[in-house]
Amino acid sequence: MINTAALFSTTFLPGQAGFDADAITGLAEWRLDTPMLFKLLISADAQAVAWPIYDDGEDCLCVLAAPMVQAQASWQALSALMDRPRDAAAIVARAGISALLAGGQPWIILDSVQLIPYDIDTPEYAAALEALRAEAQALHAALQRGDREALAPLLAAGATSPVTGYWSATADAQLADVEELGADELPFLQGLEVRKWLEDALCYEVAAVGQPDILGLVTPYGRWIVPLSLNVIDLDSSDAGYGWITFATADAPDAHGVLDLNGTVVLPPAPGALYVISPHLVQQYDQDGASRLLRLPDGALLFESVHQIGQRDDGYIDIERQTHDDEHNVCGVIDATGKVVVPPAYSSVQDFGTKKKIAVVSQRIAGRFLFGLVNSQGELLAPCQYEAIDCATTSSPPKLRKNLIFAIDAQGLACMLTPDGKQAFTPLYPPAHHLRGVAVQSDFLYVVKDGMAWSMDFTGQLLEQFDTVENFKAAVTAQLSAALGLSKKKTVRRRSFTPAQILARADREQLRVMAALLLLGDAALAARCVDITLEELAEDAPEEEYEGDTPEAACFFLLWSTAADVLGHGTTLDWKSVDEVPRIGHHIELPALRDFRWTEREDDDAMAEGLAAIAAHLAPHQLRLVNMHGGEDTYYLGVVRASDAAAFSKLALQAALRPVLL
Fold first, then answer.
1. pLDDT in tens, 54-113
2. DSSP state at residue 431
3. Is there a contact between 408 and 391 (Cβ–Cβ < 8 Å)?
4. Angle, helix 645-654 to helix 551-565, in steps of 10 degrees
5. Tens-digit pLDDT profile for residues 459-473
6. Of 307, 332, 335, 310, whose CA–CA distance to 321 is shortest?
7. Which residues are registered as beta bridge partners of 10?
8. Which H or E run includes 514?
9. Are 302 and 309 spatial neighbours (Cβ–Cβ below 8 Å)?
10. Global pTM value
11. Are the C-beta atoms of 135 and 123 separated by less than 8 Å?
12. CA distance 180 to 20
């Protein structure tokens, strides 16, 4: 639903004999806010009244009412101060306002219920309604004294100015939800090609017959949000839920701008592409690939050299900025308005906890990724000097046990951190097992002292000696195997090949063709991918082994890995990584995935549904999602062009790979 302000006219007020909700006439409306003219017309003598078209407004004061004669007088006084209209549209608009105000009904109603973010009949709502009335009274006072400065936006208003709102004899009046109607019921749609109904924008997308490339948006009551005269050829309303529509015109098809849901241009078209991030943010890409983050609606520059942006599970937004070598990019966190929460100074910033607003951060120091803690004010609580900090996943907040956080310092010693980042005790012993869930329990740790495994409490005091570290690890491994039902299964060893064996069978041209398919036809990037893959194989230790049914299969899989990890054209997801599906654009850096949102996700949806949603999103872009190994618990994902799918499958099968194309 789009929140809207509206002006109504009515013969009787609620509570008066003769009041009939069906007899209310719509005068004007405006999406997203209350126009200045609406407030001025409601004037100084506005009174708060109930409005029974809202179930909870039947017995509560929730709208403002004023005598129509007063609104007419205010409009006449304002018209006397306004400059003579300079174009035909302005003349028509002013005449329309005058005619509608002279409709004969004695009362005018200002309904801004949808724009007040509080429940009706609460003190907060009453205060907001009173503030709206005070604003109306101040505007009326400015009109009475002829204060041109206070009324400047209205005096300069054009035909489509947001300060005047939308006026029409057919205004919907918001007495019912705006919904799709049959095209044959709406005369203004005759002679137009109706493309589709856009629920988020509450509009039909239409095109002129004979000009199928020129697009427009029009409401079921005939209001043109995007008129055909704008010559729009690229219209994206997928972010209408955020309040914005991106567009490009026939005059500059490679330049994109932003409209609000009233059709007001807030960002004129500029060369490149636009991706709306939130109601307040948009990412702008130049044609050369440079990008920046802008604030909406004023277009103010917030960050230059933005590499990628992604929504987080904690409600914040990840932002990654490019560095000169593109290998040590820095990450930070902003809120939905663009305010910096964590400055871009880290290699990663994990999610904040819901209660303790703490997140794990990392920095690359002397070739190692070390971890620390930061709070939601951006303050570094624990410096990045820890080899590991306990959390459920690589994106989760730190895990608290007895209000303490398990960590391993840079020297490999176990310790506990307080929520403010202080060490609860001086680290002395390494953890006794590489599995984090084994090393730390609910109220004690397993550590190593003099080759023996011990339990230790969260104050650093040793509790009980168990056994040698080797025996301790063997016992834990046996317990885990039994719990997972693996102890009776025979291990099936897959074939594997050394770097020398793979290089001996490597066909550079065949690899280049395969790489080009994985990299969407980019020949230069494909050549680089092949070079990196073969160079790394040549530098590997001779005894290293890579799995695959054939040497070619092992090589092709390494080629995919290079494209995924180095060039950003693929990713690996575990079968349990359902929460990573909405962040796929963070993992695979393709323009077609930047605006992917898994909006239809249900609570019990698994990876299969997530991958299907990604594939459906890619289909209009003529792209196919690929899983390099079908039927496994890990998904090795990439993207190929739909036109390349058959060639990709043929090459893969020749090497004994069996990718699944979704």
1. 878 788 999 999 999 999 999 999 999 988 777 777 788 888 888 889 888 899 999 999
2. B
3. no
4. 130
5. 999 998 888 888 888
6. 307
7. 107
8. helix 508-518
9. no
10. 0.65
11. no
12. 26
